[in-house]
Write a structure and sequence with these properties.
The complex is a heterodimer of chains A (about 290) and B (about 375).
Chain A lengths: L1 H30 L6 H16 L8 H22 L9 H23 L14 E4 L2 E4 H23 L1 H11 L1 H6 L4 H25 L10 H12 L4 H21 L4 H16 L14
Antiparallel strand pairs in A: 1-2
Chain B lengths: L8 H4 L6 H20 L2 H24 L9 H17 L4 H23 L4 H21 L1 H4 L5 E2 L4 E2 L2 E2 L6 H22 L3 H11 L1 H6 L4 H27 L1 E2 L6 H14 L4 H28 L10 H16 L3 H15 L22
Antiparallel strand pairs in B: 1-4, 2-3
Helix pairs in contact in B: 2-8, 3-8, 3-11, 3-12, 3-13, 4-5, 4-6, 4-11, 5-11, 9-11, 12-13, 12-15, 13-15
Classes of the chains: A mainly alpha (about 290), B mainly alpha (about 375).
């Protein structure tokens, strides 16, 4: 019973990791850039939603606040690509790594100056409500997290497989040069993807906020989500979700049954093991180039 | 511009371009050695700090600047160096023995990590080092008998041949000790870069495929570079422990890793002087901000210290600015200015223009 309880809580947590990881993977697939500020975008998204939704701030209804926050963060992601990331197009990959780490600090500073560094609670319609079924207690927030993740993943899948823009994005991610040649606006697609990953990060942030208080440093969760993306194999959307779920489930179980600090380390240990055994992740996208 | 005619191969690979260059470095060393007589205790301590950062920066430069391996976990190597050195000294070994041993231990640890890590390309290595950093940080808290856990430990005071090199008791001696170590490492580093090993680092950085085709063992080269890099960083960590005096795991936070990356990126990737320029910037800017803050507070009553995180913010903006507008860093900018002066009035704006390139995919390895 206890194990089941842990697994359900872990799945909900894992969905949040998975969503942040999804943001990484979207950008990685589109431009092979790694956005180390993804965790901070999640944080900023949660705070923007809080700014729209909480009674002492703008006080809009919860659903509207989340949608507005997603729109705002879409613009933030778009703007970051348009104004900053595009400038360093063609520079080596680590330039973007360092750049996005710095951007993360900027986001943290912005959130800290507007909303302060003390933890705040996002007001949600389903806070603290629980369902009981056969001896286990399931938080409504957990169910919402799992449901929202499933819904969002489905929507993204439909977007990438059934819309013109989605197909163009797939083409650009497979071979940028060839995509240019057949007339795909690669630059604009990249901006769009950054915007999308901002919106996905917002959803993750809101889900995170429904399960506890938020402060500007929750962006550090991004590192764990990163581990999730690597476990799944950077560049695989289902892999990212799976990686997130693995980490989310293992963490509380390790915390319950394994000694001391092992729970804290478990995501990274899993990641290192995966990296050593399968350097490309579980769903590998790497190919050897023949010389 | 002075044209140097090179009449032999030895002349071509010489460390210094000409006598003037050699003399300049001698003058610089002399000024640095005389610094304790020129400035007060406060600035001497700052200079020591800058030198230690430069040493750590050189460590990272071997990996990032010269072999093209990004590491986000170099703070872990600083920590390992600091704790190993302190533990060995507590066990009764003199500094002369414990210090190189600390570097060696860190280097071995780094190489050990590198063997699986170098099979990963670019971004995966960065993430793996980040994971190693988190694990090392937790280990430091766990290994309480050695590291003092959360409470931290006191770095033992250094004494060689009966002369005290204590950071507080004899700052001048400590400064000279650090200066000697940094000078020796720099000399060794510069020489390494003109040896076959150093050249193979550059070859691996520029193109792994071509390096392999030229008969370079890429895996070995990368592991060696990473081991050297972590070893030098470990040395810097040991010195940093002695410089701070009392430290715990918080001294070696993820921000230190990022600051180190800042040092090498802003200084100029792939240039040894870049590590020094970056270190000067990273230790100098907080001082400047403090002076500015006091000045603003006194003159117009604007109290900046009420805004938390402003320092980090300014650092981040500087970093973003450099990556976008001057990817070659401070040293690259200096090279451009020098070329402009030397060629005046023939310098053209497009001389250093960056070539736009398409995305180089790393999915194909």
């Amino acid at each position: 019973m206890e194990l089941l309880q842990l697994v359900i809580g872990g799945l909900a947590n894992g969905c949040i990791y998975g969503l942040v990881a999804l943001g990484f993977v979207l950008i990685y697939k589109a431009s092979e850039g790694v956005n180390f500020a993804q965790g901070d975008m999640m944080m900023l998204g949660a705070f923007v939603a809080l700014g729209f939704g909480n009674a002492d701030q703008l006080g809009l209804p919860f659903g509207l606040a989340v949608i507005l926050a997603m729109a705002v963060m879409f613009c933030v992601g778009w703007g970051v690509e348009r104004l900053v990331v595009r400038q360093i197009f063609g520079q080596p990959q680590f330039a973007l790594v360092i750049l996005t780490i710095a951007l993360g600090f900027v986001f943290r500073f912005v959130a800290g100056s507007i909303w302060g560094y003390t933890p705040l609670v996002l007001e949600t319609p389903f806070a603290g409500r629980n369902l009981r079924a056969g001896g286990i207690v399931i938080g409504l927030a957990d169910l919402v997290a799992i449901g929202a993740t499933l819904g969002l993943t489905g929507a993204l899948w439909l977007f990438f497989s059934h819309t013109r823009i989605g197909l163009a994005a797939q083409a650009a991610s497979q071979n940028q040069m060839a995509a240019y040649i057949v007339g795909v606006p690669v630059m604009r697609i990249n901006s769009l993807i950054w915007g999308l990953s901002g919106a996905v990060a917002t959803v993750a942030g809101v889900l995170y906020a429904t399960r506890g208080a938020i402060d500007p440093n929750i962006g550090l969760l991004g590192i764990k989500a990163f581990a999730a993306a690597v476990i799944g194999g950077m560049g695989s959307l289902p892999g990212a979700l799976l990686g997130g779920l693995i980490i989310g489930v293992v963490e509380p179980i390790a915390g319950r049954y394994a000694p001391g600090e092992l729970a804290q380390m478990s995501p990274y240990i899993i990641m290192l093991v995966v990296l050593v055994l399968r350097p490309g992740g579980l769903f590998s996208q790497m190919q050897m180039k023949k010389v | 511009m002075r044209v140097v005619f090179k009449t032999s191969y030895d002349r071509d690979i010489d460390l210094h371009k000409d006598g003037i260059h050699r003399a300049r470095i001698a003058v610089l060393l002399a000024v640095m050695a005389a610094l304790p007589f020129l400035v007060g205790t406060y600035y001497l301590a700052e200079a020591t700090n800058t030198l230690i950062w430069a040493l750590a920066g050189m460590g990272l430069m071997v990996a990032v600047g010269h072999t093209g391996q990004v590491s986000l976990g170099h703070a872990a190597f600083l920590a390992i160096g600091a704790y190993t050195d302190s533990a060995l000294m507590e066990a009764g070994l003199p500094f002369v023995v414990s210090f190189p041993l600390a570097g060696l231990a860190t280097g071995l640890f780094g190489a050990l990590i590198a063997v699986p890590a170098v099979r990963m390309s670019g971004i995966y290595l960065a993430i793996a080092t980040l994971a190693v950093f988190v694990i090392v940080e937790e280990m430091v808290i766990l290994l309480e008998p050695v590291t003092g856990g959360v409470g931290g430990i006191m770095a033992p005071s250094i004494s060689i041949l009966g002369i005290s090199f204590d950071r507080y008791g004899a700052l001048q001696n400590f400064y000279w000790l650090v200066l000697t170590i940094v000078a020796l490492v720099t000399w060794g580093y510069a020489n390494l870069m003109r040896s076959p090993t150093g050249r193979s680092f550059l070859a691996v950085r520029d193109s792994e495929v071509s390096a392999r085709a030229l008969g370079i063992n890429v895996t070995r080269t990368k592991a060696l570079a990473f081991g050297l890099s972590s070893g030098v960083t470990g040395l810097a960590g040991a010195l940093m422990g002695h410089y701070i005096g009392f430290f715990n795991y918080e001294l070696f936070s993820i921000f230190i890793s990022i600051n180190l990356l800042l040092v090498v990126t802003i200084g100029g990737l792939g240039f040894i002087p870049g590590a020094f320029l970056g270190a000067i910037l990273i230790t100098g800017v907080p001082q400047l901000i403090a002076i500015l803050r006091d000045g603003l507070n006194a003159s117009i009553g604007l109290d900046l210290s009420t805004i938390p995180g402003l320092d980090t913010m300014i650092f981040s903006l500087i970093l973003i600015g450099f990556i976008i507008f001057e990817p070659t860093g401070l040293y690259g900018r200096w090279l451009k200015i020098r070329a402009w002066v030397e060629l005046f009035p023939l310098a053209r704006r497009d001389m250093f223009r960056r070539q736009k390139s398409y995305l180089k995919t790393e999915r194909m390895k």
